[in-house]
What we know:
Its EC number is 2.3.1.286. Residues 10-285 form the Deacetylase sirtuin-type domain. There is one protein chain. The protein has 285 residues and is of the alpha/beta class. The protein has 2 domains: 1-44 and 89-129 and 205-285, Rossmann fold (3-Layer(aba) Sandwich), CATH 3.40.50.1220; 52-86 and 131-199, 2-Layer Sandwich (SIR2/SIRT2 'Small Domain'), CATH 3.30.1600. The protein is 37% helix and 16% strand. It has 9 helices and 10 strands. A 7-stranded parallel β-sheet has the order 1-10-9-8-2-3-4, with helices on both faces. A 3-stranded antiparallel β-sheet has the order 6-5-7. Strand 3, helix 5 (116-120) and strand 4 form a beta-alpha-beta unit. Helix 4 (91-101) packs parallel to helix 9 (272-284).
Amino acid sequence: MTNSVTSTPTPTGIAATAEAVRAVLGDGPVVALTGAGVSTDSGIPDYRGPDSPPRTPMTYQQFVGDPGFRRHYWARNHVGWRHVHRTRPNDGHRALADLEAAGVVSGVITQNVDTLHDAAGSRRVIDLHGRYDRVVCLSCAEVTTRAALAERLTALNPDFTDGVEDVETAPDADAVLASTEGFRVADCAACGGVLKPDIVYFGENVPKARVHEAYALVDAASAVLVAGSSLTVLSGRRFVKRAAEQGKPVVIVNRGPTRGDALAALKVEEGCSPVLRALADCYTR
């Protein structure tokens, strides 16, 4: 049966919660599995949190099969990526980097595409679902930066972002716009092929090599710490199942229920940043 902790929002309460988490995790190595909830304090909304509006993400099949969908996506992304690009790591990201530096966390498997773990100083990061800051050609496989594509899209659509500020933006930089009519999409500069964000879409498989690398990290760990994920999709939940099958303790820090709660030795119903910071302090003081 899963133990559950809801700490009080006081330094003493959070410290006690962190001590309870440490008691379950032990001395490591611990693998951290993170989701959108770890980045909400950086101003990036999550998909499935208690206060998140319903969203219907674009599927891989829609993106590759319909030029209209691609125009719609790139127009929204052209606005939204600038918001994600301006975001900075929060204390939860920094705490995980500190735990890695202390030898407690062996690596981070993140379902996020925002690159904030790297920016915070984490050294071993597996970007399970890719990265928003790269673009790949579906024909020649050339990879370019999203910043370089932004310059090309701006040249093709010089007035498109005028007056567009403070729009709702999803974790993958997809902004909500009233209309995307007239937006011009850029093709691959090398071969003229279709450009796609280097992100694993719904309906698309995570590359096998990436999955095997993440499994190896879990196999070598003594425990798994889940931070800010509802574990709704199998691509992340499978690592929790793997740890549970091996008899390794799993701690979940997440506001709201997750699909891995039944496998957790401890569930903490709190925000990631204060708990992770208190946990890092617990190990490093």
